[in-house]
């Protein structure tokens, strides 16, 4: 896999798809490795070149001491575009990755469109993660083994019954998370970046088309944040997924991927 070093931090990224097609940059959420985008990448590779970096602190990228900032991680993403010689990119981010995408669009005129999933603009008007959910996703039982720990931490991000409906997929996700997710140091440093993020007063400066997708039953970043993004982004369209959890783009991957492909077909 290619890698680029920015300010002494190596950022590893995967490249898939058609090198002659428009470039799509996929940015993952807090703690998650680039495995998170495997389904969307598969849906795009026939027509697009797809870049999937591991955020600093995650997977094959370096994990320097934190705290990190979202602006820092956006600069890492820009360095990936530089390294790969990208002149324009359609940027898709989920959760923390959506925050990085917003910051990148504000800082880099190569961003041609935004797709923002289950994310927030931050700031005083944003609806935060409820305290009980925050405690759950950052504190597994001490006696949990590594697999049990991942399943426990992920519970608020999925719908009730998901583990029972797709047990084989859940086992594979646990495998991927064990192999490619953030280190404990990286996860804590990324969490500090999310907590400090605030683009709310700057979103009016983003002139590119934006698609905002959010599950109505998101317990991690409540759906009210989608409305806030829609109000403040000049060229945003919003689609809500009824009953969708935070990881709705995994649970409803075919429908989500079709919607993103349609949007990219209109703007790319």
UniProtKB/TrEMBL annotation:
<dbReference type="InterPro" id="IPR000073">
    <property type="entry name" value="AB_hydrolase_1"/>
</dbReference>
<dbReference type="InterPro" id="IPR050471">
    <property type="entry name" value="AB_hydrolase"/>
</dbReference>
<protein>
    <submittedName>
        <fullName>Pimeloyl-ACP methyl ester carboxylesterase</fullName>
    </submittedName>
</protein>
<dbReference type="InterPro" id="IPR029058">
    <property type="entry name" value="AB_hydrolase_fold"/>
</dbReference>
<feature type="domain" description="AB hydrolase-1">
    <location>
        <begin position="22"/>
        <end position="252"/>
    </location>
</feature>
<dbReference type="Pfam" id="PF00561">
    <property type="entry name" value="Abhydrolase_1"/>
</dbReference>
């Amino acid at each position: 896999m290619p890698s680029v070093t920015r300010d002494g931090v190596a950022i590893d990224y995967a490249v898939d798809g058609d090198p002659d097609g428009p470039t799509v940059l996929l940015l993952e959420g807090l703690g998650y490795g680039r495995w998170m985008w495997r389904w969307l990448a598969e849906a795009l590779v026939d027509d697009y070149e797809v870049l999937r970096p591991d955020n600093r602190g995650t997977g094959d990228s370096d994990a320097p001491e934190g705290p990190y900032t979202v602006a820092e991680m956006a600069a890492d993403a820009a360095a990936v575009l530089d390294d790969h010689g990208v002149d324009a990119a359609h940027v898709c981010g989920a959760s923390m990755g959506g925050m990085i995408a917003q910051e990148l669009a504000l800082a880099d005129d190569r961003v041609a469109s935004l797709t923002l999933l289950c994310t927030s603009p931050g700031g005083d008007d944003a609806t935060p993660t409820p305290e009980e959910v925050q405690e759950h996703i950052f504190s597994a039982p001490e006696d949990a083994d590594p697999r049990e720990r991942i399943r426990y931490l992920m519970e608020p991000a999925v719908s009730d019954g998901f583990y029972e409906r797709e047990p084989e997929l859940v086992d594979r996700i646990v495998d991927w998370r064990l192999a490619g997710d953030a280190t404990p140091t990286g996860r804590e440093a990324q969490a500090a970046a999310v907590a400090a993020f605030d683009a709310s007063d700057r979103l009016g400066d983003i002139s590119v088309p934006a698609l905002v997708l959010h599950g109505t039953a998101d317990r991690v970043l409540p759906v009210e944040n989608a409305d806030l993004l829609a109000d403040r982004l000049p060229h945003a369209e919003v689609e809500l997924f009824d009953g969708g959890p935070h990881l709705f783009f995994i649970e409803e991957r075919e429908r989500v991927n079709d919607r993103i492909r349609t949007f990219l077909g209109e703007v790319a």
